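Supplementary Note 3. Input sequence used for the single-chain structure prediction.
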Amino acid sequence: MVVDKNGFLIAVMVTVAHIHDSKAAYLLMRVLKELCSSVKVIIADGGYRGEIARQIRDTSGYVLKVVISGYDKQGFRPIQKRWVVERTFAWLENDRRLCRNS
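The predicted structure, written as discrete structure tokens, is reproduced below.
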């Protein structure tokens, strides 16, 4: 899922269960490139670090800024800009049919 700085949905991709999110991200970035050329930096979680970040940067020009929680070392502290994505997830989970926790 890709959201803007206000948490509004820009692009989403649903895959089958055996495809890892980091592998599907490459395809989502190609779609995003066609939809929204003004995006420069994408904030992602730790699952998108390494080779996939380099591949996306080289092919689509997006910079993946990977943020990793330091919860083990420093205790709970909100991660900058991560709250935007978490709020979007909360909006989606308000609809019980979409909620995976029910």
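The first helix runs from residue 21 to 35. The beta strands are 2-3, 9-11, 41-44, 63-66.
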